[in-house]
């Protein structure tokens, strides 16, 4: 954000509740410009302060931050934000305006009260630009219909989403046949002999092609070598294409502690992660399975009957479906079939609610987080920061298939993770391209 040349150039940003619930410290990220919090936002945050979800944590942390910043000042007056380069903030009570959003839209609701706050500032601060900041697209559209400037909260958003598409896997043509022969014969070759002066990314995967044939390879940054990658079985699940082979290699690689797998429905993300976890079950104390809960019709899971396990089961069915698919690769009399049942019964393989991760230390755990695109960046950070010794975390998802209303392909946690930790020696990312569920599923992905 460019700095204002004068006080007149300093803008006023009006924050919606959705911004606070996305990032409690968002108030500090508007440079030298001033920030206004409508009193309606505080009233809404009061409804979120109880609970274990990330949004409850964000609400509580923001209330504490506001209390710390205000100290002995009246929060309806302009109060300096911490730091010499920051502006001021104030809480705006419900004002009276010439234009009333409740009347314009024919309904009295909190969103319209927030719009009224922006309208009031626009009327009273005529020499300054007033901007409503919201992650609610519909509220931004309503604001623009009232000629109020409106923007999404941009801090932390991935600017060039297309760069994420090329992370982790590369195709190199025109490779010397002798180098490919060496990879087949010796399993590895010095990286510079093939990559030359190309930039080398830790744990990157390559499809190396000569005029005659090709080979799959992995860049081992620790040894500075390219290693041949072969298709391997994991609990009787065999990769069906190059990308799946790379993904399973990363899942099974003991050097890599953090893996993200991106791909549309049916590409095998969750299946490979589960198969890899089962293959390594002896190396970890427990296997945790989790996915964000995105309730239908904006209802919380509290309305469902039963204990927490019963409430979670409807949302976790896709994980159980994949587990059952792996189990059905064997006969009921096979020890591998029985082992999966035993792991579940002995709680060695468990569904773990993400809401209860905060504050825990997860040691000796293989942790699979499915549908990670529905997590916020803060939730991703919270999960990874819980990792103790000998813990491996796999995030799977599709950054273009968002089910949470205030996230998009640029601001979701999975995109944030891929962008921030790419090239780290503990991390590997694979994008699965081809659907392998069925021809019918591919038809839906391609044509519908």
From TrEMBL:
Key words of the record: ATP-binding, Nucleotide-binding
Domain PIN: 11-141
SMART domains assigned: PINc
GO cellular component entries: cytosol
Regions crossing the membrane: none
Family: Belongs to the PhoH family.
Name the record gives this protein: PhoH-like ATPase
